[in-house]
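REQUEST FORM: STRUCTURE PREDICTION
Request ID: SP-0412
Submitted by: Lab K.M.
Chain count: 1
Length (residues): 147
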Amino acid sequence: MMSSTPEEIFRRMLDLMLAKDMSAVADLWAPDGIAEFPFAAGSSPRVLRGREEVRAYLAHYPELMDMKEVAALTVRPTDRTDTVVVEWTATGRTVATRRPYRLDYIVVLTVRDGLIALFRDYWSPLSAAAAAGDLGRLIDSFERRDA
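STATUS: Completed
RESULT:
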């Protein structure tokens, strides 16, 4: 693959997500690339190891969330040329409820040889569950852990 900057890779990922091409999104990951979700809760994974785990994780995303627009996008360079911090907002409709959603994210993205080596995604599980109509199930998962 041609060398690409982290910003170019991230923007390509968003274009593919809007096109609902999740397999192509997964192809942006290095074979051993990592996706981390430090704030994940409930049944959501905290770490995905490798392109194929990312592919499996993303496979049904369009059946859950119908992302329509990137409403805001700010890319912040770091002192490392292979890493950027991205603040972005997605809007769309939740497939199950057909209700609109607006979700904010902060991503730290590191690329190696033009592919995603590390994707650390700081998203709110509460906001995502509320948008998906699954807030009660998320809360129940916490209560079951405490029992």
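NOTES: The chain has one domain: 6-146.
Reviewed by: T.R.
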